[in-house]
């Protein structure tokens, strides 16, 4: 069968797990499947498209789809360019134009489950022999109180501190001894800025990333963004941990002058500047390595380093994943096909050492690909060790530069994003971060008080 790259999702074998590459492709024809699920053929429409420049992802996914379709006659995989959009999802769901498999950030599953917008696929998942070996930690955010599972994650991650090893060396710092607490981060950032003229540390601040990264920083200080009261969630950030976190940013920005000149950046902006050697440290995951190399042309990959997220009494980091779920409107037959696809595409490569090695070997043929970038294990530590050993001959990243993250992250509590309307909460918190970073006289207490009032109105409406 001839393959069109406009009907493909790109999965890359990295460190024995799958990482998703996303972009768009226009002109996708409507699905020809029998939406009633009673026809003999099922065309399964799945969200997510590979980047046109990411040839390795396209080629690997084409092989993946061919293999799946050969093993599952009557099911055809058709990708779409659409991304998760909370503003349009409900309308698409009502109009039955939503895909059969949707990709959502880890902020969304609990809300989708509560509103019955997605359906459980537990029965189909349990048909897999290794279902009981899933890491409970990665399934818990995708489950309801009765234990029904509504999705399969892809490349679970935990936030850390990304740093430029070359700038560390130029500043007289040891790149093999990255900071472990925020006092050290502040001192390191000041030294990098003074010695190199580059931004020592950067905090994202727009497109909801300001509130997102403030959440990470709050967790490291022992705080929470939302707390439960009388069975409902209210804002919890107008407290000492978040205030201390913002005071830290304010001091680094205005007292130390160690955060550079551009304070209104999102993740792409920051990674692009990092790839160009302009940033010493920022909060991110190991997956930013691929973004820096593949999208923004990081030339000297040996400059990339990452350590566990520094702490200030919280002993915690923010975890997450991309999650694939099945809308409630999808027919039973298509839901069963979707579960088969998710197990084949997401779970099996992260469990089976032979599959992981095969895909890593294929991916490594592309000199621009990144094989070996670590993520959190989907299954047991023992199984992950088998995966790591299987792909070791094909790893083409400086794995030792990820070791501080690998060593330190298991010692931290992995905390999820705020449980109710996290993205809306981040929208409220972005201006707080922006004010602190752009206004020397910003009143942190007043900013948080206003944000708390706005957040509580929003949360009350969300929980009616």
Quickly describe the structure.
The chain has 464 residues and is α+β, with helices and mostly antiparallel strands. It has helices at residues 55-71, 89-94, 109-114, 122-126, 136-139, 165-170, 182-196, 209-220, 240-255, 267-275, 288-295, 332-351, 353-364, 381-391, 403-408, 422-438, 444-462, and strands at 10-14, 17-21, 42-47, 75-80, 102-105, 151-158, 160-164, 226-229, 232-235, 281-284, 304-308, 316-325, 413-415. The strands form five sheets. Strands 5, 6, 12 and 13 form a four-stranded mixed beta sheet that branches.
Structure, explained:
It is a single chain. The protein has 464 residues and is of the alpha+beta class. It folds into two domains: 5-155 and 320-394, Periplasmic binding protein-like II (D-Maltodextrin-Binding Protein, domain 2), CATH 3.40.190; 160-284 and 420-462, Periplasmic binding protein-like II (D-Maltodextrin-Binding Protein, domain 2), CATH 3.40.190. It has 17 helices and 13 strands. Strands 5, 6, 12 and 13 form a four-stranded mixed sheet that branches. Strands 10-7-11 form a three-stranded antiparallel sheet. Strands 1-2 form a two-stranded antiparallel ribbon. The protein is globular. Mean pLDDT is 87; it is low at 1-39.
